[in-house]
Specification:
Elements lengths: L17 H13 L5 E2 L11 H11 L14 H15 L9 E4 L2 H12 L5 E6 L3 H9 L3 E6 L6 H14 L6 E4 L12 H12 L4 E5 L21 H4 E6 H4 L8 E5 L1 H14 L5 H13 L3 H22 L12 E5 L8 H13 L1 E2 L1 E2 L10 E5 L4 H14 L4
Parallel strand pairs: 1-10, 3-4, 3-5, 5-6, 6-7
Antiparallel strand pairs: 2-8, 7-8, 9-12, 11-12
């Protein structure tokens, strides 16, 4: 028998708690039970038809099967610049301020490699999307977790970020933020972001804003890009993804935009690591950005209807929740009668007794254990079925 290998980076990772609930869901389905899956945030709506048609056309051209560019083909970067001009009124240079990434998660992870090393630290929100917390750790740095709050106040989080930076040593080099926020659904105003940009310009800090839910917002709210802030290109970069806005999760198309030396540093690293997304996908993404300009609003309207169905249903059965202003999630505090269970046991209970799968809040970091996250990835009929299951199984409400 060979000696057991001592792996690097992996031993420090906690169990991915979402797999626990996923296993319970699969087990229940094997028993013939119809579990409504509101756990994994995997968009269920089809991608734009123009994207599918252009992908098929481009894939038939053998020249597109060669290596592409890790920075993204020029027309794709130009399409992103047009999107930012049209959507946010922001002018970006496609050559120096935009780079294509193989999804936002890849872009963020490798960005941490070029910004951080052992001995450095980053400020990250908690609870948070797991890679926002673990990306700095993978780079060998420390992640100083700052509570984002109850999901209603981005301004309070920004105050806590500034305080953590002043009190910390060595001084954090990076501040990670993401509004609208997964999982808490917190949204920020342009004034909130401008205050943070002004603060960062006086310090040696890079702001990394993940704008994954740029177009998935409700009740008429339009989230700002950090690039709209005065002086943002001096201190900030932003990730924009086609995953949610264009329902193109499996395509893995995202972009890093903003401060040119940071974008260039990521490009240099990526030139050693990859040759970019499959070129027909890049071509299809270019056409989609230029031609399917109304698609993100149509997608958002669907999720807003689902949000209303779920929140109204939970309210009716005695589980009051805050209506999110954005994202494809509902961040629900566990009802008081069940709160002592913690999020993992409560999520188990929902599968066993209610035939509903959700994500345990503890999987998103400290401060999440009193919550579960619902993903709005089922239609309104199925959401209604889930609410009926919850009413039946949550007998203490």
């Amino acid at each position: 028998m060979p000696r057991e290998i001592e792996f690097r980076r992996i031993p420090g990772l906690p169990p991915y708690v979402f797999t626990i609930i996923d296993s319970l869901k699969l087990e229940a389905r094997r028993e013939g039970r119809d579990v409504v899956d509101l756990g994994f945030g995997n968009p269920d709506l089809p991608s734009p038809q123009v994207a599918v048609d252009k992908l098929a056309e481009a894939a038939l051209n053998q020249r597109n099967h060669r290596y592409s560019s890790s920075r993204g083909i020029p027309k794709l970067r130009e399409a992103v610049a047009s999107l930012y001009q049209r959507r946010f009124g922001v002018t970006l240079d496609p050559e120096t301020q935009i780079i294509s990434t193989i999804g936002a998660k890849e872009g963020f992870s490798h960005l941490m490699w070029v910004l951080l090393q052992p001995g450095d630290s980053a400020i990250v929100p908690t609870p948070s999307y797991p890679i926002h917390i673990w990306g700095p750790y993978f780079a060998g740095a420390d992640a100083r977790q700052v509570p984002i709050g109850d999901g209603t106040d981005a301004s309070g989080f920004i105050d806590r970020v500034m305080e953590a930076w002043e009190l910390g040593w060595p001084k954090p080099r990076v501040v990670v933020l993401s509004f609208p926020h997964n999982p808490t659904t917190t949204v920020a105003s342009l004034e909130d972001l401008q205050r943070l940009v002004d603060w960062a310009r006086e310090r040696d800090v890079v702001l990394v804003h993940d704008l994954a839910y740029a177009d998935m917002t409700f009740d008429g709210f339009t989230p700002p890009s950090i690039m709209q802030c005065e002086g943002a290109t001096e201190v900030a970069v932003e990730l924009y993804s086609m995953t949610k806005s264009y329902s193109m999760a499996g395509w893995r198309v995202a972009f890093l935009v903003g401060r040119s030396d940071v974008v260039g540093a990521l490009g240099k690293l990526k030139s050693y690591l990859d040759y970019g997304t499959f070129q027909p996908i890049q071509i299809a993404a270019t056409v989609t950005l230029n031609e399917a300009v109304d698609f993100p609003r149509e997608v958002s309207d669907v999720y807003e209807s689902r949000r209303n169905a779920l929140c109204d249903g939970l309210q009716r059965i005695g589980w009051p929740v805050e209506r999110p202003g954005g994202t494809m999630f509902v961040w629900a505090r566990i009802p008081e009668a069940y709160r002592e269970m913690g999020s993992i046991e409560f999520a188990r209970h929902l599968v066993h007794e209610c035939d509903v799968a959700v994500s345990p809040g503890v999987g998103f970091g400290a401060g999440g254990d009193e919550y579960v996250r619902f993903a709005l990835i089922e239609n309104e009929h199925r959401i209604g079925q889930a609410v009926r299951g919850l009413k039946k199984g949550l007998t203490r409400l």
